[in-house]
Amino acid sequence: AIVAGGLLMPVLWIVYTTVHGPTSFNREWFVLGRSSHFWGRLLGGPPNLLVALGLISLYPLLAHSARRLTRVGYTLAVIGLVVPGGLDLFIWRAIGPPFFVPVVGTGLILLAFGNRHDPRSQWQGLSLLMLIGILQMVAFALALIPIEIYDQFGGYRIYGLFAHFLTGLGWAVLGVGYWRRQAPPPIGPAQI
After folding, report:
1. Secondary structure of the chain: what % helix, strand, coil (to 5)?
2. Fewer CB atoms inside 10 Å of the end CB: C or N, the chain?
3. CA distance linking residue 130 with residue 104, whole number of Å
4. Cα-based distances in Å from 124 to 6, 68, 86, 171, 175
């Protein structure tokens, strides 16, 4: 689920930013007969919900019997994905404001930091969790820039690059790493 959500994010972001445009002004272009509201709804909903589902399935590995800091980070990350994903998909029916981006970022940073001494944790997975958390915090910092300045340098597109494109690639790589870790070893001739 993390891999699917991670791969959907950059693909949908490319479509969304094409129909919406690089600034906060919506160009109202169409792709496959659909507007930016439709593509924003898809960008904000299914990828976040798929990644959250993947994190929930990794609970035993990431947060079960872990320190309080780790469980708080895990909870923040899952809530920060599920709430805006559900809101974007079912309530707003478009991509919503980035209120939960720092919640996800903070949660992932705490999750990675809290798991650093856990012998079950791989440094690559923790590094990716930390990187995705930092990407989310950078995206939120960009969203705080006044719109008059933000639009002059295509800030809307740069925000999406951090919040969706790079984050999505990070989720996909993280998901593949955990998927490979949980896969049973291949049966060789000596094991038959």
Report:
1. 75, 0, 25
2. C
3. 11
4. 17, 22, 30, 12, 12
User: From first to last of its 192 residues, what are the pLDDT tens digits of the chain?
Assistant: 999 999 999 999 999 888 887 777 777 878 887 888 888 888 889 999 999 999 999 888 888 767 888 999 999 999 999 999 999 888 877 777 889 999 999 999 999 998 887 766 777 888 999 999 999 999 999 999 998 898 888 888 899 999 999 999 999 999 998 888 775 555 656 555
Say whether 169 sits in a helix, a strand or coil.
helix
Q: How far is CA 7 from CA 38, 85, 111, 125, in A?
A: 18, 16, 22, 17
| Amino acid, single-letter form, for residue 103 | V
DSSP track, 76-131: HHHHHHHHHHHIIIIIISS---STTHHHHHHHHHHHHHHTTT-TT--HHHHHHHHH
